[in-house]
């Protein structure tokens, strides 16, 4: 089983059960629809907390953040910005075209550009190899809990190159290629040394030998109200 570290309000998160895909989505949806929280605020809280954990556990050296176009990629843009604030050497590799960066992620992409964080849109496998060969830390912010099925294209190439690297690897929310609910790993799945996950562990972390992909799990909160989380504490098996 993966080793787990709790951060923030330990009394809360120690009791929250592992969440499935639908529960994760429900937390985000309720926070936005019923508590009037903005999605971009949740993303900022998630990315800020993840960057703090990465700064604490990552070795010194060059950091590469692999970003997709959805919320997980948006978290990656926020993480890169905060790691820059920690005086870390960080750059972003986007594995999708700029037109595929959507929703709240697009706002954080724009912020990252204006903050002069080194950023590259990847088009070929050779570009991935070149950038990852120079890194001491690789962060997987490619696909989040909503992803299903095998990884493809540049995502698959990036995972293979990252797994072959001697760099320390961090997954954001869960390793790309690992199913949130079943813990089933795709043929190409990011093999993390650390997984920084939000609100609670994901239910798949304890299934199908998923611990060999998630590594040490660090739980950080995203600032949703305790009243909302209490619903999941009470219901037991009653964000992204």
Q: What's the SSE blueprint?
A:
Layout: E1 4-6, H1 10-13, H2 21-33, H3 39-57, E2 63-67, H4 71-85, E3 90-94, H5 103-114, E4 119-121, H6 125-132, E5 137-141, H7 153-164, E6 168-172, E7 194-198, H8 211-214, E8 216-220, H9 226-235
Parallel strand pairs: 1-8, 2-3, 2-5, 3-4, 5-6, 6-7, 7-8
Helix pairs in contact: 3-4, 4-5, 6-7
The CATH class is identified as Alpha Beta
CATH architecture label name: 3-Layer(aba) Sandwich
Radius of gyration: 16 Å
CATH superfamily: YjeF N-terminal domain
Helical content band: 40-55%
Largest sheet properties: 8 strands, parallel
Dominant shape = globular
Order of helices and strands: EHHHEHEHEHEHEEHEH
Précis, in short:
The chain has nine helices and eight strands. The protein is α/β, with parallel strands linked by helices.
Features of the shown structure:
240 residues, alpha/beta, Rossmann fold, eight-stranded parallel β-sheet, 9 helices, disordered C terminus
Polypeptide structure, described:
- The protein has one domain: 3-Layer(aba) Sandwich (Rossmann fold).
- The protein is built from 9 helices and 8 strands.
- Helix 3 packs across helix 4.
- It starts with a strand and ends in a 5-residue tail after the last helix.
């Amino acid at each position: 089983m993966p080793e787990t570290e709790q951060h923030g309000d330990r009394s809360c998160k120690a009791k929250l059960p592992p969440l499935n895909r639908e529960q994760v989505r429900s937390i985000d949806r309720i926070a936005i629809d019923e508590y009037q929280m903005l999605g971009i605020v949740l993303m900022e809280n998630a990315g800020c907390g993840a960057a703090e954990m990465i700064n604490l556990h990552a070795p010194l050296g060059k950091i590469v953040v692999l970003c997709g176009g959805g919320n997980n990629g948006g978290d990656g843009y926020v993480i890169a910005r905060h790691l820059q604030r920690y005086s870390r050497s960080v750059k972003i590799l986007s594995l999708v075209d700029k037109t595929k960066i959507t929703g709240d992620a697009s706002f954080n992409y724009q912020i990252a550009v204006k903050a002069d964080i080194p950023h590259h849109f990847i088009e070929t496998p050779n570009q991935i190899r070149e950038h990852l060969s120079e890194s001491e830390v690789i962060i997987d912010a490619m696909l989040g809990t909503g992803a299903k099925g095998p990884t493809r294209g540049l995502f698959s190439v990036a995972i293979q190159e990252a797994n072959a690297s001697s760099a320390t690897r961090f997954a954001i929310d869960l390793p790309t290629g690992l199913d949130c609910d079943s813990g089933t790993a795709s043929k190409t799945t990011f093999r993390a040394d650390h997984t920084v996950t939000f609100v609670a562990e994901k239910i798949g972390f304890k299934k199908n030998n998923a611990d060999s992909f998630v590594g040490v799990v660090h739980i950080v909160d995203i600032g949703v109200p305790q009243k909302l989380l209490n619903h999941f504490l009470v219901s037991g098996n009653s964000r992204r």
